[in-house]
């Protein structure tokens, strides 16, 4: 062995190099930061593999998205999942459609029933109206007599005294039903001048019968307009007085044991001319049971 302490192999031209010293315990557990091993089932991206193959020439790893972008992406994924139709959603949609269809069908039937009811009421009203019109009595002025007409002056007032007699024919045109009349109030006027009022007692008519009503009215010293009084006096002398007669009351129709009681009755005899009655005419009055008839 040489003085240097190194073994010299026999037959060798030079000295044998020293053996490498075993690493210490601390050195054996130190990691080389320049070498890292990635374990992944997916192959590394091409640009990353090139970097590794080239001896880590570059540390350009894929850039990770910001946190808010990742959070938005997660929310979008959740919204897509929540909006996907499910079997329960399809079932509920079918239920809603069936419910709407049932409602429409119910409304259609209700409208149809209401329409039939309205049509039935209209037909019933038309039949009743035709019956009522056919059952209306007939009023005609048979005679008119003004037995007294006096006009006097008192201070600044014009006073009228008059007596009027009327005969009215009331005919029950119906051949099956009786007519019963209540007390009728009668008002007679001429050119807006009141010639008196009267009440006619209640009476009854058999089918196809004619009743004659005797109506007498009078006024005594009634204040009237001067010009109207002069016109009335002139027409009275010429037998050309024009009068209006109004009857109001009620009537009951006896229909073979059944009754229509208390039907309103109003008779309008308007513009009745004395000259026509004196010539033998019997002007007909308008009979109303309701305001719309």
UniProtKB/TrEMBL annotation:
Basic and acidic residues composition-biased segments: 86-95
Region ranges (Disordered): 1-95
UniProt-annotated location(s): Membrane
Keyword RNA-binding: no
UniProt feature, compositional bias: Low complexity: 1-14
InterPro entries assigned: NDR1-like
Metal-binding found in the keyword field: no
Membrane-spanning segments: 107-132
Main location: membrane
Keywords linked to the UniProt accession: Membrane, Transmembrane, Transmembrane helix
The organism's place on the tree of life at top rank: Eukaryota
GO (cellular component) term, any one: plasma membrane
GO biological process: defense response to other organism
Protein name: Late embryogenesis abundant protein LEA-2 subgroup domain-containing protein
């Amino acid at each position: 062995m040489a003085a240097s302490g190194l073994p010299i192999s026999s037959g060798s031209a030079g000295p044998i190099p020293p053996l490498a010293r075993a690493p210490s315990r601390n050195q054996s557990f130190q990691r080389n930061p320049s070498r890292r091993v990635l374990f992944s089932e997916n192959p590394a991206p091409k640009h990353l593999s090139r970097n590794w193959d080239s001896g880590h020439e570059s540390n350009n790893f894929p850039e990770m998205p910001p946190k808010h972008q990742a959070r938005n992406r997660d929310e979008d994924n959740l919204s897509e999942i929540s909006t996907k139709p499910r079997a329960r959603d399809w079932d509920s949609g079918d239920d809603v459609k069936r419910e709407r269809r049932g409602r429409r069908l119910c409304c259609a039937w209700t409208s149809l029933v209401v329409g039939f009811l309205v049509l039935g009421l209209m037909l019933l009203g038309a039949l009743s109206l035709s019956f009522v019109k056919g059952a209306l009595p007939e009023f005609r002025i048979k005679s008119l007599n003004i037995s007294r007409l006096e006009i006097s002056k008192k201070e600044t007032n014009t006073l009228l005294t008059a007596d009027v007699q009327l005969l009215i024919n009331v005919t029950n045109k119906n051949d099956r039903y009786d007519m019963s009349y209540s007390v009728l109030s009668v008002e007679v006027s001429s050119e807006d001048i009141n010639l008196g009022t009267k009440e006619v007692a209640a009476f009854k008519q058999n089918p196809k019968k004619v009743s004659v009503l005797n109506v007498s009215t009078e006024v005594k010293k009634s204040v009237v307009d001067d010009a109207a009084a002069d016109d009335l006096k002139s027409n009275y002398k010429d037998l050309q007085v024009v009068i209006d007669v109004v009857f109001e009351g009620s009537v009951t129709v006896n229909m073979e044991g059944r009754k229509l009681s208390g039907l309103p009755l109003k008779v309008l005899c308007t513009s009745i001319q004395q000259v026509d009655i004196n010539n033998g005419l019997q002007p007909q009055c308008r009979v109303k049971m309701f305001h719309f008839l």
